[in-house]
Automatic annotation (TrEMBL):
UniProt keyword Protease present: yes
Record Gene3D superfamilies: 2-enoyl-CoA Hydratase, Chain A, domain 1 (3.90.226.10), 2.30.42.10, 3.30.750.44
Protein's name in the database: Peptidase S41
Transmembrane residue ranges: none
GO BP term, pick one: signal transduction
CDD domains for the chain: cpPDZ_CPP-like, Peptidase_S41_CPP
Family: Belongs to the peptidase S41A family.
The keyword Protease belongs to this UniProt entry's keyword annotation: yes
All residue ranges annotated as the PDZ domain in the record: 89-161
SMART domains recorded: PDZ (SM00228), TSPc (SM00245)
PANTHER family for the chain: CARBOXY-TERMINAL PROCESSING PROTEASE CTPA, TAIL-SPECIFIC PROTEASE
InterPro entries, per database record: ClpP/crotonase-like_dom_sf, PDZ, PDZ_sf, Peptidase_S41A, Tail-specific_protease
Amino acid sequence: MPYKKKYLPLILGVAVAAGIFIGGKLHFADSGDRLFSSNSKKDKLNRLIDYIDYDYVDDINTDSIVDVTVNGILENLDPHSVYIPKEDMQSVSENMKGDFVGIGVSFYAYRDSIAVVRAIANGPSEKAGIKGGDRILLADGDTLYGAKLKSDEIINKLKGSIGTNVNLKVFRKGEPKLLDFTVKRSVIPIKSVDAAYMLTNTLGYIKINRFAESTYREFKKALNDLLKEGATELALDLRDNPGGFLNIAEDIVDEFLEEDKLILFTKNKRGNIEKSFATDKGDFQKGKLFVLINENSASASEIVAGALQDNDKGTIVGRRSYGKGLVQREMDLGDGSAVRLTVSRYYTPTGRSIQRPYNKGNDTYYDDYFERLESGELLDANKIKVADSLKFKTPKGKIVYGGGGIIPDVFVPIDNSMQNETLTFLERRGFIGYFIFEMLEKNRNAYKGLSKKEFIENYKISDDMVFQFQEYVNERTDSKVTFVAYHDEVKQYIKANLADQLYGEGAFNQVLNQRDIMIEEVIELSKLGN
């Protein structure tokens, strides 16, 4: 099955990542006494753990047994109720909060040392004078180099309380001795808006990678900046976005819908319904809108697309979305761990649930997804399976369907040239990024004075650079690869990675979008409407 290997990390990510965290505003009717009262089922589990603790012949880590037990219970509920061990809670929480306290650098663990790829713009490291290519060797006297040093250990040494200083010793190529920097730790954003820029003189573009606490603020700033640049139309890119907070998705939809329009409603096991309506605060209620989705757009992404589609606002462009319509709520388990438990379903304004069936078990649920990929529906909209019993109608008479994702208004097939398995492998393994970093190490000054705009619009990757990259990969892998069949695509990825390391600020996406057939389709649709 050609798609299984390629999409498995994305699907697993969709199943357990940020997209399941959208039930924060829901409330339980049950009291604490009722929820945590003693009963025979709970007593049985407690007794078993106690027996193993005190009487089992070997010493056993009962914490790991509890983890396995919790996971086993959740696997029998639905695909999106998950357990978060206490050791993972901090990183998960930071990712969904949208920031952390640190020194503000993007780095590689490169040749047993910490190599700065780029200091984050306006962050504490940039203000202190740290540059791309610097090696951070010591932090407050602690060693940050060596083969056995793990990335989480490095991060923990660079993190700390806000406003505290960390003294760094840095090696910089060309300097005769180590440089000393004192960096004051501050809040570092984890960006959820990957890129925001103008595609044409009137068409703005915003790409959102998840719906975290900070996402609406990032989106609002990006939208305001684009409006100042003359945007009267907007392309909202939610491709590969696994979801996130329900209320953040609602806030973003509210920017586009008129007051009192229904955004969605949720229903729990007791039949309680909560409805969410748009307000009059939206700044883009009259503007023309395009929403880009694909097979990995899930959860809160589908809330946005479904709410807009059902209210006849904008045009949904792309491929059928993932199909997750369950709402989770995070619940503390008392030892630093937590469970995200499905507590309700959400429905789009026309009343459709877009959750795919999961009653035959999790394995069947995920196999059904792979079968959908392999059925050909990524290339042909006519192969999307729909059920007449799940047909709904929007206020303007458009037919929409429930039962498994949002079907776009305008279908765009997958671009196999940019979805090549070799390219995906090279990108995920970091080969392209490392190659670019080593190339910049030889002569960073070659790009000094070249603006981001000039680079994106005019800079060309040479054939010789592609051949150098091919040799670089072949020296580091057992199999020999050639890029003859997708020479231009490799150039595009090299340029995108080079742009990212030189400029950041969405440059990676801006370069890749130059060859993106879905972006091209949106631009053509924009022209037709003018």
